């Protein structure tokens, strides 16, 4: 009986009802999961990878899907093999959480905001394991310690909104592991997390799998994560399984064209080591001219000096300011015309606040922001409005930054109308040109945002940012939510526009491989300060600050022979950026160790 798989999916077909009639989300998928094995299901959005796993939990029915064919055999330890495709909901209630655990993609929606962490962790233990309240609480404490949450006793009494994204994801993992399930389904569990937290969570899941012998079905679109975690890989494309094999084989010798294209689209750390300037990626199946390096100029377009942005924390009965969040602390840098400066760091390091402060979407406390030689912090609202013609922003979530009730034509035309730059047929023509520019068909102009995929929406956001012919664009995590191949296309598009139009970018990201591909200069942020800044090739080849080195170590590499263990990572928890009102931080002092390569000598708390 040893060769009996824990789960066997055979000939699965899942159908969804739409207004245009039924659509097959999964067409005919079969694969096994063996005891103690990690199977990674990879593919892009819409390939049917999440639907396959939700079918195994029989949750797909709650999302409008219906299993119309195939079998889902699950090996229950004591009751033998059951076909879950036809199981009663009463039986599924016993299996969910108890024998099959699930980690969802978005930890905030997977946790209930009105119950404490302790209440949510003990619920499953009391239902499935019949524990008393005290036993369940003791076990919950053990679980939080296992997933390395600091101060676990205090966390049990807290609510989900009081924890950071990485902490919430650990709680979700602890909940999924609580009843020691035989199979753990992880649906993109690290997509929304920073590199360092992602590295820790992957190492944590790997350790828990080895210690408990749980089989893992891991769903992701990140090939570097696959290389780190998988024993076997299943590649899905448009509802079909196109390739399956051991992880080494898939990476070293992929047979299907789609798998090859997927691997070719992954930016790999170190690819740019011998190149002085950024250049677009070569993509399979996409017509491209020979990629040209983008040099840019040495003319300064933006000069930021000693920028400080703090947010007040209110408290007490009268809601007085009791302390400040030091989001950006004494930051200085320059952006050159036609070049890209990338800011990298973890969530909460202040990189997005820097971008917003430059556009005065949040007001800085002090410092100087010189754009084309003028300090824009002294501008009146009307002068600032004029300057925003040349300073534009692309936000992280294109769905949130587009108006769901307006056609795309009107959304891209809006900036031109606001500034009175075009009207009538000229306006229509200019918008059509912008659609051509971002490689979207003109027929999409009559569509609404919900009718587009994530990558297409992001292109609309780029088209809208380009409408006013800006000189500088702040791109805040502009590609972090996109699939690998879409991300590669959007990055290539941004670099192509930079080469054609001489645009400058301030590129904010936590993905080091993407940053290496697009940047001329790189600044590393930690706790509101720039701890290191310099030319891209120097910062990557010779990271000087301890924090930069830790960040580089955490980057997962798309090569299964270079896996990282928990020992390699060893991160320090980030201290709090909240300080009392009278607190005066030290000034940032830098040492120039190589031409143009500066490292912070002030103690930044790392």
Automatic annotation (TrEMBL):
Keywords: ATP-binding, Cell membrane, Membrane, Nucleotide-binding, Transport. It is found in: Cell inner membrane. This is Dipeptide ABC transporter ATP-binding protein. It is a peripheral membrane protein. Residues 7-263, 302-552 form the ABC transporter domain. Belongs to the ABC transporter superfamily. Coiled coil: none annotated. GO terms for cellular component: plasma membrane. The keyword Cell membrane applies. One of its GO terms (molecular function) is ATP hydrolysis activity. One of its GO terms (biological process) is transmembrane transport. The lineage of its organism: Bacteria, Pseudomonadati, Pseudomonadota, Alphaproteobacteria, Rhodobacterales.
